[in-house]
Structure formats: C-alpha cells, structure tokens
Amino acid sequence: MQKFQDFFNQLLGMPVLASEAGAGTDRLIAYIHALMFALFIGWLIYFVYALWRFNARRNPKADHIGVKNHASSYLEVAVAGIEGVLLIFVAVPLWARAVDKFPAKADATVVYVVAQQFAWNIRYADKEGNIGRQDMKFVSEANLFGIDPTDAEHTNAVQTLNEFHVPINKPVIAYISSKDVIHSFKLVAFRVTQDAIPGMRVPVHFMPNRLGKYQIYCAQLCGNGHANMAGGRIVVESEDDYKKWLASKTTTAPVSYE
Prior knowledge:
Helix content: 25-40%
Radius of gyration: 26 Å
Strand content: 15-25%
Number of helices: 5
Low-confidence stretches: 251-258
Mean pLDDT: 85
CATH architecture of the largest domain: Sandwich
C-alpha cells in the first residue's frame, strides 16, 4: 500500500508530506486518479471498438433501433458504485476523523490564528488551551485578539507575526479567524485548509511528523496584497528546540495594548 502511494505521489508530482493524517488525503487522491485512469483506458478501448464495429463498410444501412442489450447501463452503474464506495468508505470517514476526533488540548500545541490583510497573527495558548479573557471592545491594531488588559495571566502570552513554531510528533490545534475579510489558512505540506471568516473561530488539527520550514498560503483571494499572505511560515522542530524558541519569546517585552 505504501509503495503504491509513493509511486502515485511521485507520478502526480505531489508536494512534500509533513503530517500524519495527510497520508489519508494522498491515498484518496491516488485512488481517484487510478479510477480516472482506468476509466480513460476503458472508454478509449470502447471508442476504438465502436469505430470498428459501427463503421460504414460493416453497416451500409443505418440501424435506427441501436443497441439492444444493457451492457452500457451496467458499466455506468458499476462506475457509480465505485465512486459511491470511495465517497462512503474513504472520503467520509477521512473527513469525520479530521473534524470530530480532535486531540485533547492538554496533549496538543494550541495556537490561535487571526488573518488580516495581508499577514498571519499567531498567539499561543496556555496549557489549558486558553488565551485569556477576550472582548470585542479591546480589539485594536495593537490587540488583534481582543485580550482583556487586566488579565495579567495572559497579557504577555507569546504572539508572533507570519511565523510560528511547533514540536514534531505532537498534535497541533489551530483556531482560525479573520480580522477583516475572508481568508483561507492553507498548509499544503500538512494537507490542511480552513477558511478564516470574520466573526467565527474554526478549529483544525494536524500532527506534524517531518522537521522543516513550511509555507502558509492564503487560498482565498483577499485583496491586492493577497500574494503577500504566502510569506507565512510554520517551523517544525524538535521538542528541545521548540522549548528554547518559546523561552526566547517569553523573555521579550510584553505586548502593548494601549
């Protein structure tokens, strides 16, 4: 199975895979392409057969009744059945697992992402997965997350722009929102895409399993500076390197909410 997937990934020029659940997405893509290739070969063979079987020399007089059997109907039912199997037994379970089976916050790296024209704002949550008291009245250019300035416990939480770090082989939960227009948080290497919608906070999760730096894209046209959204980065590193990076950020000056 793995060799089959690796062959198709190479054949289709798939991007590098850096998440655990992304393998299921790649398998689904491989199955669909294999099915389409089989259909292409099958219909090509039928097309050549039809050219030979129904040419003018073999049929000098037109037959207005046409085909009398139901072979083509059976083929269409078979194709629809295969597609139904892919949908019900592959696509739906894959989606359900991605949406419903979230890891526990205590066992994950929890970040809150607010998109804006044209950057990504990332704020790290505490061990319980919270970023403190929030209120719309506190939202400003300097306080995009609307953190209550009197919440001393969370006022100086780690917050970054266009880059965030996560430890390898540990679940990541990202809560996606937007400050202005609709954006789309897309991590190609992790096979993750989620619209960032103003007024909503939608969670996604993934398990990074490959060290490296990976690009964050915006998959929704969001204005003249849309291309600048591709300047975001996610860095997957060892647990020790992640702790060192996090410690370096917690010793910096606190964020001003004035």
